[in-house]
Amino acid sequence: MITSALPASPERAEKRVRADRPEGADESITAWALAARGGDPAAVDRFVRALHRDVQRYVAHLCADPQAVDDLAQDTFLRALGSLHRFEGRSSARSWLLAIARRAVVDSYRYAGTRPRLYDAADWRPVAERAQPCGLPGFDDGVALLDLLAALPDERREAFVLTQLLGLPYEEAARRVGCPVGTLRSRVARARATLIGLLAAAA
Prior knowledge:
This protein is an all-alpha fold. The chain is built from 10 helices and no strands. The longest helix is centred in the first third of the chain and has 22 residues, at 41-62. The protein is globular and about 55 Å long. The model is unreliable at 1-19 and 135-140 (pLDDT under 50).
C-alpha cells in the first residue's frame, strides 16, 4: 500500500530502502543502461523494467494530472532511449533518468500553458471525480498520501519524494535538485515534521 512508504522515522526509512533495493541494484541498472547504449536489446528491457515504477511514482508527485502519468512516463523513456548514446555512467542511471522525467514534466506544463483550456460543464470537479478509478487496493490510502504531499511546499515535497519514496541517497538527490546536501536534509526533515503533524491532527 502506498502509505507504507511514509516513514515515521529516518531509521525506518533507511531499513525500508535497504529491504526494497538489493545492495548493488543501482550499479546493475547503470551497467544495463551502458549495455543498452551499445545496442543490447536485453539490457534495454532490463533497464526499462527496473526503473519504470520509480519514474511513474516520480512524475505522479510532480504533475497535477493523474491521467497524464502514464504518458509522461512513456515520454521519459522515449527521451532516455533516444539519448542513451550520450549517457556515460558518470552518475547513476536512476538519477539520470529522473532528471529526464523532471524535464518531461516541465515541458508538459509549458506545452499545456500555451493551449486554451475549454470545458462546457458548469462544474468540472464531479466529472473529474467520477473519472477516477475506485475500489482498487490502496486507492483511498494513495489519495490520502497525495493530499498530504500536496500540502508541502514544492521544494520540500520533491526532496521527500526523491529520498523517502524513491530511495535516492541524499548526496545524489541533492545533485538532482541542485542544492547542498545540508539543505536537502533540512527540506526532508521539515517535510517529515509537517506530514507527522498533519497525520496527528487527522487522527
